[in-house]
Design brief:
This protein has 172 residues and is α+β, with helices and mostly antiparallel strands. It has six helices and seven strands; from the N terminus they run E-H-H-E-E-E-H-E-H-E-E-H-H.
């Protein structure tokens, strides 16, 4: 199935518009998220990704530097394409590039309650209480690096503004 899935880093305006279209279908139309919350001021500073299934755009996501973290956001798979491993391939590619480009930034996301198990399958850990974002319950999830050597260089561990709950989940 993997050969049917291709994930790219967005490099053109056309690809970015395709990402926005997927996000519009998933977040604005399907989940009723207000457009002004879905498209934000961080679009230009984010690295966007686009996943294809059988050469057809099917999923998208982005990440950006947020304080001492690498924040994963706007992860969306078209409803008709879910359950095919596309979201998994997208996240794996995003995580790989995130670690390569930003090895000192802990990866985290504000995950929708219904997607927590998806993140946990990828090795992410849910921390803290649920909160409401765009009228949808969310919880913070963090990716705990398997390579414990990475811990000594994580910026968030040296950041006094890093939430205690994050530092606690990273303890060996």
């Amino acid at each position: 199935m993997k050969e049917k899935i291709k994930v790219i880093t967005v490099s053109t305006e056309v690809e970015l518009k395709i990402c926005f279209n997927i996000r519009k279908k998933v977040f604005i139309i399907e989940q009723k998220v207000p457009r002004e919350l879905e498209v934000d001021e961080y679009e230009k500073e984010s690295t966007h990704f686009l996943a294809f299934y059988k050469n057809t755009p099917a999923a998208t996501g982005r990440f950006r530097i947020f304080q001492s973290f690498l924040k994963f956001e706007r992860i969306a798979t078209l409803k008709s394409e879910r359950g095919k491993g596309i979201g998994l391939a997208l996240m794996q590619k995003m995580q790989k590039i995130g670690i390569e480009k930003y090895p000192t930034y802990l990866q985290f996301a504000n995950a929708q309650k219904d997607s927590i198990k998806f993140y946990q399958k990828l090795g992410w850990q849910a921390v803290g209480d649920f909160f409401i974002e765009a009228n949808i319950p969310h919880q913070v999830v963090v990716f705990i690096p398997k390579d414990r050597k990475m811990f000594e260089n994580l910026k968030c561990l040296k950041d006094e503004k890093c939430p205690k709950i994050i530092k606690d989940c990273l303890k060996l």
